[in-house]
Design a protein that fits this description.
There is one protein chain. The chain is α+β, with helices and mostly antiparallel strands. It contains 11 helices and 12 strands. A 7-stranded mixed β-sheet has the order 2-3-4-11-5-6-7. The protein has a 3-stranded antiparallel β-sheet with strand order 9-8-10, with helices on one face. A two-stranded antiparallel sheet has the order 1-12. Helix 4 links the parallel strand 3 and strand 4. Helix 1 packs across helix 2, helix 4 packs parallel to helix 5 and helix 6 crosses helix 7. The longest helix has 19 residues.
Length: about 375
């Protein structure tokens, strides 16, 4: 039920129109030296992350980017450039620019190559945090292609049998559209969760589940503040007895495609998360594949498979999902309500940040139908 103030909801999050989120991010970034065009690229990316329900990588990340630009650890004027271009592959240098700008450039290049050669693969170096992998995958999917993207990150993962940081969260994403407007879209970290999930738990003053992170004593913890302080995440699967070595292996696979292949920093050689002693020099990998180059019918086959999976006998009351289904539900809910619902603490932080930078704060609205 709407409050007396039409821009607020009683006991609930602030609902912000999608365009308003983009505008706010763009204005904040322009205040610290980016062009309006690049600010718009980052703004659309962060809004999309929140729109899909990935709040750990949306507005939650703006403060980090602004700080990196203010401290000159990231170059607001940098533009990506091609270093090597050979038929279906390319190597791009981000020149220490904003990762989202670098990522968009690289996937557009991979898409162009896929349309010409059937497949395009672009490796990037000298970049920064580039947001959610799925954003770039969607770019390829929107062109009727299979999309893939992955990135290395600052060391956060404790390899199996270790209590030290050896690899990043090293997320990856793969997606393909199917017939009948269906789709598969995987977007996952190779750690149990991304660090942003811990940060959100701290913001909400909530504990974290067992298996997410190690505490200051080197053991598994449920204390979100202690976990954030140490910043040591467990690989997907958790401990060794629950197959955490598989997540560790996937993280190393991503490192080969990103850090080793591109010539960027890699593994424990990447600066610490939020460190300002040197540039990040992250590596990314992007692929676009034209399924029609392999022959007809793949989208129909995928639609059949997804339907078969969802219709398998249920183990409980909840529906069987495929990757991308939760995001689709979240996006429909946002569209129905007229905006993205942020936690009250996030709205408060955004208002304080807007005041510090001297930009117009985000305007919240009442939920449609309330």
């Amino acid at each position: 039920m709407a409050s007396s103030d039409s821009t607020r909801l009683v006991g609930a999050a602030g609902v912000v129109p999608k365009d308003e989120v983009v505008r706010f991010v763009r204005d904040c970034l322009c205040k610290v030296g980016t062009t309006s065009e690049d600010g718009q690229v980052v703004g659309h990316h962060l809004m999309t992350a929140d729109y899909c329900g990935h709040f750990s990588h949306g507005l939650n990340r703006l403060w980090l980017y602004v700080h990196d630009l203010e401290s000159k650890i990231t170059d607001p004027a940098a533009k990506p450039e091609i270093v090597t271009d050979f038929q279906a592959i390319a190597l791009v240098s981000g020149n220490n620019g904003l990762g989202h700008v670098v990522g968009k450039y690289c996937m557009e290049l991979a898409i162009e190559k896929a349309k010409k050669f059937g497949i395009g693969m672009v490796s990037a170096k000298s970049s920064n945090h580039y947001g959610i992998c799925g954003y770039y995958t969607r770019m390829a999917m929107d062109q009727g292609l299979i999309g893939f993207s992955c990135t290395n990150t600052s060391p956060l993962m404790a390899p199996t049998r270790s209590k030290g940081k050896g690899l990043g969260t090293n997320p990856l994403s793969l997606g393909m559209t199917a017939a009948n407007d269906d789709r598969f879209l995987l977007d996952m970290a190779t750690t149990t969760v991304a660090l942003g999930k811990l940060e959100l738990a701290v913001t909400k003053k909530e504990p974290i589940p067992v298996g997410w992170a190690l505490g200051s004593d080197g053991k598994v913890t449920t204390d979100s503040e202690d976990a954030c302080k140490t910043g040591i995440l467990m690989p997907l699967g958790g401990e060794e007895n629950t197959s955490g070595y598989k997540g560790y292996g996937l993280g190393l696979m991503v490192e080969i495609l990103c850090g080793i292949l591109s010539g960027s920093h890699f593994g424990p050689n990447i600066r610490q998360w939020k460190g300002k002693e040197r540039i990040a020099d992250l590596g990314h990998c992007f692929m676009a594949i034209n399924p029609e180059a392999f022959g007809p019918g793949s989208k129909d086959r995928l639609a059949t498979l997804l339907k078969q999976l969802r219709e398998l006998p249920r183990a409980g009351d909840k529906p069987i999902l495929v990757a991308g289904d939760p995001e689709k539900v979240t996006m429909e809910r946002v569209d129905q309500s007229g905006g993205i619902a942020y936690h009250p603490n996030q709205i408060k932080d955004a208002e304080e940040f807007a005041k510090r930078l001297g930009v117009q704060p985000m305007k919240t609205v009442s939920v449609k139908g309330q």
